[in-house]
Amino acid sequence: MYNELKSFQEKHMNKSVKKIMDSYLYLVDLHNSLEISVSDITNVAGVSRATFYNHFNSVGDVISCIEESVDAKILECINNHPNGVTKGIGIIDVISNEILPLIYENREILKILYTSPLQPYWIDYLKANYSKWVSSFKSEYDCRTVPSYYAENLTYLFFFSIIELWVSKPVPETPAEFMKIFHSLFSVPISQLL
Fold it and tell me: Which of 3, 6, 71, 138 is the most exposed place for a label (fewest CB within 10 A)?
């Protein structure tokens, strides 16, 4: 899987592709709309329509490429922890120590994905790619009182919401600072947060 991810990054992250993706994100953020044409993107990117279509078939392909490029390093990390735990390291530690820094690297893009009209697509992408990984932590759930369906869905929705709140701040905390908050949010019962 790592070689596929590396191959994806090398294949898709040339200069023109990056310009197109950055221009699309800029336009979505500027206009708070998904009504962005190929012409709009190519004008801002300073590339020809032929260059656009050399790399993408549609604006939807740009969205997919953005999602996959932001997520490539995180998926690589997750593939190193297929069952969630390695050598006694739990899910929260894996996320805190390895994934939060990767999220922070892409915080500006993630802020747009979480706070723009792209958000429903981004959440669908996350659910599709992470629900299996989250369900691998069933052993960490106390399912005597809550069915695993609710525990799993609440876990990843809670996680996505925490990340959205973090990256959407005008000046997000560093991963080291946020790690303490993250641990607290996952270790304190929801009833104590109210």
Answer: 3
The answer to whether position 75 is within a domain reads no
Q: Reduced to 3 states, what is the DSSP secondary structure of residue 60? A: helix
Which residue from 37, 7, 140, 124 is spatially nearest to 85, judged by alpha carbons?
Answer: 140
Which token pair is 127?
A: 């659910």
Full-model pTM: 0.83
In a domain, 104, yes or no: yes
Q: Are residues 101 and 165 in the same domain?
A: yes
| Count of domains for the chain | 2
Per-residue pLDDT of the chain (194 residues; tens, 9 = 90+): 434 544 555 554 689 999 999 999 999 999 999 999 999 999 999 999 999 999 999 999 999 999 999 999 888 888 777 655 555 557 788 888 889 999 999 999 999 999 999 999 999 999 888 877 777 666 555 566 778 788 778 888 888 999 999 999 999 999 999 999 998 888 887 777 77
99 and 168 co-located in one domain: yes
Q: Residue 162: inside a domain, yes or no?
A: yes
The whole domain housing 143 covers 81-194
Dist CA 36 CA 38 (whole Å): 7
The pair of structure tokens assigned to 77 is 């990390």
